[in-house]
Amino acid sequence: MKNVKRLYVCLLLLLAFSILGACSSNSEKESSAAKNDPNANASAPEDFKGTLEIWTFFADVEKMAVKFEEEYPNVKVNVSVFPGDQYQTKLMNAINTKTDVPDIFDLEKGYMGKFMNQPFVADLSAMGADDLVKDYVPYVKELGTGEDGSIRAISDHSSPGAFWYHRDLAEKYLGTSDPAKVSEMVSSWDKIIALGKQVKEKSNGQVSLISHYGDAYNSEKSHQEMWVKENTLNIDPAWETVFNNMKAIRDENVDAKLGYMSGGWGDALNEGGVIMFANPAWAGFMIDNENGAAAGKYGLAKTPSGYFEGGTYRAIYEGSENKKLAYEFLAFIAGEEWQQYNLEQTGNMPALQTVYEKNKDTFTHEFFGEQKILDTYYDLVMDIPAVKATENNDEITTLWYDAASEAINSGESYEKALSDFKGFVQNQYPDIEVK
User: Fold this and answer.
1) pLDDT tens figures, 47-58
2) Both ends of the chain: CA-CA distance in Å?
3) Distance (Å, rounded) from C-alpha 127 to C-alpha 220?
4) How far apart are CA 252 and CA 371, in angstroms?
5) What 3-state class would DSSP assign to 151?
6) Of 398, 390, 421, which Cα lies nearest the Cα of 217?
7) What is the pLDDT of residues 66-78, one digit of tens each?
8) Does residue 37 register a pLDDT over 80?
9) 161-307+393-428 CATH choice from 3.40.190.10, 3.30.565.10, 2.40.128.110, 3.40.50.2300
10) How much of the chain, in percent, has pLDDT values that exceed 70?
11) I need a labelling partner for 288 at 20 to 30 A (CA). Which of 121, 131, 133, 179 fits?
12) Is residue 244 within 8 Å of 250, Cβ to Cβ?
């Protein structure tokens, strides 16, 4: 009996020493990592030093790097810009092989759901990111939030859309170019369809109110329930209303039948023939402003629902040995100073509500004359539902649009569009149950 007790005591001691050893080992590793991090004790911008590697598909990140280096004089930021169609593959190859993985990598809204909850994406909440985004536009914050509720990626902007309209055409065919009055005239799709018919009649068929029925899709596609629930395809009844509005626009000859970003669409946006276009705030690069030709040319009106298009987010690689400096970069672009600068220099709308609020009554843009455009964008951006990025929701939404467009162009019903859509989903996502 004594031998049994002695053995039991020895086993307990052995276990205790093992636990202490493990703790000591972990402590040593953490201590070693802290010693190897040149920024472990850095707090002020001038204390930080080293080189930060960033991968992106968006050349404007280089502007962020320049401004960051101005604030952090002992830091070098290397930005590698890759073509958008090659970027995902190159990034995943680097991550899978653990070869030359950047400290920070950009993710586009359309596919970020595939990355958000992967173990190679660092938990930014653990670094304090909840404070960075506490005043963010809700939809922007939520898109960067993982399934576990932690912040996984941060954007420095929002991407609200609105109607951009030709002021001269609005005066001639709508009777006013006042943004508040025009917004009221197009505050529902029923109003838009009725107004579009009037424009066609008044212009003898030469001018259209909108460019394409796709505007109804783009401005409403964020307001439905998610497509997949418990691995089953979930079709929100509200999609039928979207379809009916699209079909009525085409059947009543309201649109100019110019596909989004097509050559004819671009011509109409710059030269006329169509009064208004549902455009994201970042669409300014599509405007011909040579010698100030677009100064005061456009007005900005609200779409019936708030919507957004696109968006770029930044994540930190979990395996980075430069996390503290990487987080400092994300904190910089999440701050008011950078977002105010970005607004003034590029016209990109901020992610921070505080920057919206400070500029609502003052900010103007050359294209829109003296109109205070943030007042319009702020109301719209706050109307956008806040949902998490998922792996396939955007792709399934595109499949719905493809089926709806085919049905409308062929004069078919919503039932036909729905049948085709279900087939598309079943073929592309065989693991999703389609009832």
Assistant:
1) 999 999 999 999
2) 67
3) 36
4) 32
5) strand
6) 398
7) 999 999 999 999 9
8) no
9) 3.40.190.10
10) 92
11) 179
12) no
